[in-house]
Design brief:
The complex is a heterodimer of chains A (about 240) and B (about 270). Chain A is α/β, with parallel strands linked by helices. Chain A folds into two domains: about 90 residues, STAS domain (Transcription Regulator spoIIAA, 2-Layer Sandwich), CATH 3.30.750.24; about 100 residues, Pectate Lyase C-like (3 Solenoid). Chain A is about 15% helix and about 35% strand. In chain A, the strands form three sheets. Chain A has a six-stranded mixed sheet with strand order 5-7-9-11-14-15, with no helix packed on it. A five-stranded mixed sheet of chain A has the order 6-8-10-12-13, with no helix packed on it. In chain A, strands 1-2-3-4 form a four-stranded mixed sheet. In chain B, α1 packs across α11 and α5 runs parallel beside α6. Classes of the chains: A alpha/beta (about 240), B alpha/beta (about 270). Chains A and B meet through α4 of A and α6 and α7 of B.
Chain lengths: ~240, ~270
């Protein structure tokens, strides 16, 4: 596709912890960049299909028309752009103004509470959090997690064990993150964006979601996540 | 505005997270309403690089110095203060248009607010959109924060994020303004209601501003609707000002103005815009 000495002038693909990154070269005309990206998509369709990647503009000045064009091309191949990274604060601000989610622009620390103890010893140990988690906040616990407050859309709760929310879950909750399918999620009201137990994912229906207006419990049954109302008399 | 006595004014930041929800309009109108009540008010445009507040107030042609000139010592504070053409106790410190947010630091904003509060009863800061430097500058010197949102899921999501950041900055819980609500759309179930918004954000409500076409006209003309006794949105902004002054003003019922007329006009193909 391209010879060795021109490598820095080419679009590069890099796999990272946060998924695939497309590193875009600085001085190359956009038509070349576009052709290279299309080439990559053609030669490695299974690698890209259904993935979410980051467009890395740290070396290249971000231009709206370039981003939009790349998005369209990727979208047509079932690839989602999850974030865009930029080299300078000015560019990040520019991207934010265009409505893109940027990387490395997090000005305020995320709320991250990690319970003491290793992942193995989750039995009977719980982290207690007393606050509503607003959009952009994340709480993580090695063991069980008890939260007094709501989990708003855009907030994330991750626990090694069970998650018990004395409030409304509208955001995303992950219980049993190390693969414990016995883990459960219970809340006064479950109206989640997404629930995850072990490696299973259940998401809200795209439209017309009907939520129980009552306490509920989510657990794994027959290999999928089921939500059932909490019945006091049964227990 | 006597220079000598310390007025110990309140510094209030108007912010939103999402752009285009009406921060600048709110700042201009609440400021004008407070000034019309006899308070001395200064509006600070913290949206450096995207200067707007001066336009909404119709003061663009009076700008000589701006906020960056003040913090960089190129002029004295009083030289950058632009007096409103209608209300003598309303003033503006414009943003710089040719610089960016990095031109001012949170520390400099704190100093500026401290100086302004000695001279004014109210210092209203118009925050830029976003959660980055500009936002941090805008809340740096604030005593209180007003969060403006629209009854739209994305605006509410961003408002929620902002509320969390305000709380993390150890400011008191912000108060909420739901702007551009359309009672007809809410009635049809096509728009979030004020109750829906409050259920997520769970902060005190300080104002509900109905969608009002007069806003567009007034913004373009540089005349705040808060000074128009006929405007429903203007009334809502005057109510917010009164609530800031501690008055217990009931919220206006959101009846549909001239509902029959509007539906007829719509049926005839006029005013189809939601």
């Amino acid at each position: 596709m391209l010879d060795g000495q021109r490598a820095e002038a080419a679009v590069r693909v890099r796999g990272t912890q946060d998924g695939v990154r497309l590193l875009l070269p600085p001085t190359v005309p956009f038509a070349t960049v576009l052709a290279q990206v299309q080439d990559l998509l053609e030669t490695r369709p299974t690698f890209f299909h259904g993935s979410a990647l980051t467009l890395d503009f740290t070396e290249r000045e971000p231009q709206l028309n370039e981003i939009v064009t790349l998005q369209q091309v990727l979208d047509a191949r079932g690839v989602r752009v999850q974030a865009i990274s930029a080299g300078t604060a000015e560019y990040r601000e520019r991207l934010a103004r265009w409505g893109y989610r940027t990387e490395g622009a997090e000005p305020v620390r995320r709320l991250r509470l990690i319970a003491p103890g290793s992942d193995e010893e989750t039995d009977g140990k719980a982290t207690y959090v007393r606050r509503t988690l607003r959009s952009g906040m994340a709480v993580e616990a090695a063991g069980h997690l008890v939260l007094l407050g709501d989990v708003n859309p855009g907030a994330l709760v991750v626990a090694g064990g069970d998650v018990l929310v004395w409030g409304v879950v509208r955001g995303t909750v992950h219980a049993g993150r190390n693969g414990d399918t016995e883990a459960v999620i219970a809340a006064l009201r479950l109206a989640p964006m997404q629930l995850r137990i072990a490696n299973l994912v259940a998401r809200a229906p795209d439209r017309g979601a009907q939520h129980l207006d009552a306490p509920a419990l989510a657990r794994v049954a027959d290999g999928q996540i089921v939500i059932e109302p909490w019945r006091i008399e049964r227990r | 505005m006597e220079e000598q006595q310390d007025r110990n004014g309140r510094v209030i930041t108007i912010t939103s997270g999402k752009g285009g929800v009406g921060k600048t309009t709110t700042t201009a109108n609440v400021g004008a309403a407070l000034a019309a009540q006899g308070k001395s008010v200064v509006l600070v445009d913290a949206d450096i690089g995207l200067r707007n507040l001066d336009i909404v107030l119709g003061l663009e042609n009076r700008i000589v110095y701006d906020i960056v000139d003040v913090v960089e010592g190129r002029c004295r504070l009083r030289q950058a203060l632009i007096r409103d053409k209608r209300l003598s106790n309303l003033a503006l410190i414009p943003a710089a248009q040719t610089r960016d947010k990095e031109a001012v630091s949170p520390e400099q904003m704190r100093e500026l607010c401290a100086e302004l509060r000695q001279q004014f009863d109210f210092v209203l800061i118009d925050s830029p959109a976003g959660i980055e430097r500009g936002f941090r500058n805008a809340i740096a010197g604030a005593d209180e924060v007003l969060v403006v949102t629209n009854p739209e899921v994305s605006a509410v999501r961003d408002a929620d994020r902002i509320v969390g950041l305000v709380e993390a900055a150890e400011l008191p819980p912000p108060r909420l303004i739901v702007n551009r609500i359309d009672p007809e759309l809410v009635r049809r179930g096509d728009m979030l209601s004020v109750e829906d918004v409050l259920e997520i954000l769970a902060i005190p409500l300080i104002g509900v501003v109905p969608a009002d076409e007069a806003i567009v006209t007034s913004t373009n003309r540089g005349e705040p609707v808060a000074l128009d006794p006929q405007s429903r949105a203007g009334q809502a902004f005057r109510d917010i000002a009164a609530r800031l002054l501690g008055e217990d003003v009931p919220f206006q019922p959101l009846e549909i103005p001239n509902g029959v007329w509007r539906r007829m006009l719509r049926a005839l193909g006029f005013g189809g815009r939601a």
